[in-house]
Amino acid sequence: MINARKKEVVLTTISPKGQVVIPNSIREKLNIKSGTKFAVYGREDTIIFKKIEMPSVDDFEKLVDFGTKFAVKKGIKEKDVLEGD
User: Fold this and answer.
1) Residue range of the domain that includes 68
2) Which residues have C-beta within 8 Å of that of residue 71, sequence separation ≥ 6?
3) Are residues 13 and 45 in the same domain?
4) Cβ neighbour number for residue 70 with a 10 Å cutoff
5) Residues 63 and 81 in one domain
6) Contact 68, 55 (CB under 8 A)
7) For residues 32 and 20, is the Cβ–Cβ distance under 8 A?
8) What are the pLDDT digits (tens) for 49-61?
9) pLDDT in tens, 3-62
10) What is the domain count for the chain?
11) From CA 28, how far away is CA 13, in angstroms rounded?
12) Which residues contact 20 (CB under 8 A, 6 or more apart)?
């Protein structure tokens, strides 16, 4: 383990099957459980894993509420949205 600017850097190894183990200390810190989804980006010698979390129903409802209020404020009507369908 290396302390780089008070951030934890832990070494890991890739398996013959291409699997990478995320060390337990990092899994605990980031609340990573079995089945967690990641977006993966690679460039040159760098690989970035970004944890992806599904939005909740509450998140979708907030988005719908925002869209509805925005449409009312801008004077957008249902027929404007569905025009051409």
Assistant:
1) 55-85
2) 77, 81
3) yes
4) 10
5) yes
6) no
7) no
8) 999 988 899 999 9
9) 445 677 889 999 999 999 999 989 999 999 999 999 999 999 999 999 998 889 999 999
10) 2
11) 19
12) 12, 13, 14
